[in-house]
Design goal:
The chain has helices at 8-29, 32-39, 47-56, 64-67, 92-110, 115-122, 126-142. By secondary structure, the protein is mainly α.
Length: 143
């Protein structure tokens, strides 16, 4: 619930921050359908505001090569090269894969399996597991 003094812009930023953070992880670890599923949650007509929030999350003192260095690492993400980009037609399969992965991370986390072991089992990075755990905790706090 926003505080009484929050402006509409502050409320929008508060709404977009978790989406922006999830988008960063999704771009790195999943494919175009998964990215579309995250973008579909952006309030109508406010992709411009999402771009501003994402830009604010970037270290301006780093070069583009440094910011994209994760692309060259040993756990390179799948390429983001969709044939068509349409957030209105999300595939149930893409939503299901993301949900299944998140459910498995939640299950293994409840069993106190370390993040690096979950990452190894699921074939993703430890950072991805941490991002999923953060999203799981945030969704549990809202519920």
């Amino acid at each position: 619930m926003p505080a009484a003094g929050d402006t509409a812009h502050e409320q929008l930023v508060d709404q977009l921050l978790p989406i922006a953070a999830e988008l960063v992880g999704t771009v790195r670890d999943y494919g175009p359908d998964d990215v579309a599923a995250v973008l579909a949650r952006v309030p109508a007509g406010r992709h411009d505001a999402l771009a501003v929030v994402l830009a604010a999350m970037v270290d301006p003192d780093r070069s583009p090569a440094e910011l994209l260095a994760w692309l060259d690492g040993p756990t390179r993400s799948r390429p983001f090269t969709p044939d068509r980009y349409n957030v209105k037609k999300l595939s149930a399969e893409a939503l299901g894969r993301r949900g299944e992965r998140r459910a498995e991370i939640a299950r293994l986390s409840a069993l106190r399996v370390p993040a690096h072991e979950i990452a190894r089992r699921l074939g993703i990075t430890t950072r991805s597991v941490v991002r999923h755990r953060t999203a799981i905790r945030a969704s549990n706090e809202v519920a």
